[in-house]
């Protein structure tokens, strides 16, 4: 990793995880395989910031640790990349196992349980789907009807005032890192 850490992908440990490595990697990993409009790719880091915002809107009284979990929901992709669901399924259970080991190490590193409660995972997934709907309709060329078919119909109040922002990776990396630090500080 750029931090100088050596990360064993098959046996990751929390001491090998640094937020700067995660933020850097995610700010350069393109969602939608880069097939989006705009001058910059829509990064997994930008997506993660949006998911954390949406999660907080859906669950305004959620503990800060679960907001941090929402921010980190795709963190393993900083080393394994972002794959669309059909490709993940084709790769098989090995992908899920690798993702699970990395997630556990990342969670432990930042004071979260290795495995999130299923209720929290479901709420993060809900925010993730809303984010995907927004991305699909705003930058990936989907009609609202197509997005509704793939991601479900959403409550427009949840996305009121939000937009998809395509920015340089360096800006996204800085904002992701700052948001992570702010959430950790709130956790105490």
Q: Percent range for helical residues?
A: 55-70%
What Rg do the Cα atoms give?
16 Å
Mean pLDDT: 94
Counting copies of identical and different chains, the oligomeric state is single chain
Contiguous uncertain segments of 5+ residues? none
* Terminal-residue CA separation: 27 Å
- Number of discrete helical segments: 9
Instruction: Choose one word for the global shape.
Output: globular
Number-wise, the strands total 0
Structural class by SSE content: mainly alpha
Strand residue content: under 5%
Main sheet attributes: strand count, strand direction, barrel closure: none
The SSE order reads: HHHHHHHHH
Describe this structure in words.
This protein has 188 residues and is mainly α. Helix content is 58%, strand content 0%. It has nine helices and no strands. Helix 2 packs antiparallel against helix 3 (64-71). It is globular, with a radius of gyration of 16 Å.
Task: Give a quick precis of the structure.
The protein is mainly α. About 60% of the residues lie in helices and about 0% in strands.
Give the key terms.
58% helix; mainly alpha; 188 residues
Task: Break the fold down into its secondary structure elements and pairings.
Blueprint: H1 19-28, H2 44-58, H3 64-71, H4 77-80, H5 85-91, H6 93-109, H7 118-138, H8 144-151, H9 169-187
Helix pairs in contact: 1-9, 2-3, 2-7, 2-9, 3-9, 7-8
């Amino acid at each position: 990793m750029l931090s100088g850490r050596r990360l064993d992908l098959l046996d990751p440990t929390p001491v090998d995880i640094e937020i700067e490595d995660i933020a850097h990697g995610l700010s350069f990993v393109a969602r939608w395989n880069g097939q989006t409009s705009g001058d910059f790719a829509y990064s997994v880091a930008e997506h993660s910031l949006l998911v954390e915002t949406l999660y907080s809107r859906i669950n305004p009284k959620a503990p800060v640790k679960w907001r941090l979990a929402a921010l980190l929901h795709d963190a393993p992709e900083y080393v394994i990349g972002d794959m669309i669901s059909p490709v993940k399924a084709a790769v098989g259970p090995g992908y899920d196992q690798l993702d699970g080991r990395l997630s556990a190490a990342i969670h432990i590193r930042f004071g979260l349980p290795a495995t999130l409660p299923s209720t929290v995972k479901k709420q993060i997934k809900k925010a993730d789907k809303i984010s995907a709907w927004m991305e699909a309709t705003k930058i990936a060329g989907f009609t609202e009807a197509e997005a509704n078919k793939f991601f479900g119909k959403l409550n427009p109040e949840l996305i009121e005032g939000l937009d998809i922002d395509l920015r340089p990776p360096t800006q996204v990396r800085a904002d992701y890192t700052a948001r992570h630090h702010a959430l950790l500080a709130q956790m105490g």
